Amino acid sequence: MKRILYPIPIAFMCAFYILTYSMAVHASGWNDDNPLVNNLYYTDFLGKINDILGLGVLHTTLESPRYDADESEEETLAYAAETSNGAHIIFYVKNGVTYEVAALFRQGNQMAQQGAAEVIMSACLAAGMTVDEFNSLFKLKPWKENTMVGEAFCKKSGKLIRVVTLRHKNGYIGVALFASRS
Length: 182
Known about the structure:
This protein is an alpha+beta fold. The chain has helices at 2-5, 7-27, 42-53, 110-126, 131-137; strands at 66-67, 76-82, 88-94, 97-106, 141-144, 147-154, 159-167, 172-180.
């Protein structure tokens, strides 16, 4: 019986930490409701991410995201998925397009960290960033206690792409990727 009940608290904890993390990103004022890619439906954006993950260079696969009512709010829908190596991923969608990609993994879990990094990198490339722009994005700077931020301009989209990482006291790390008006 314990095996059946074990995933429930883990799923609840993941949802709780992503929710508090996402609230912190939105409260910071950084995410100003600018889609990562204009006029590209969420399903097409997800298809691009999966195409990049499937090139044979990366070691992560992403399960099919499912609607997450607990993470969704008003006009913003949330779709949650797990990577093959244990990272929890949420796509925030508004009016059919993706506004934010968030990842959560336990600190010290190198496989889950790799999964989160590969999904975030694939999302950046799917949004039109070059590898150099992506590398620039992850020159993180301290912002607040346990929080680092990075930003890079994507020439193709004309958007300022931002990333925020947050280390929770309980050992989880959250990463959020979103676009901001430059």
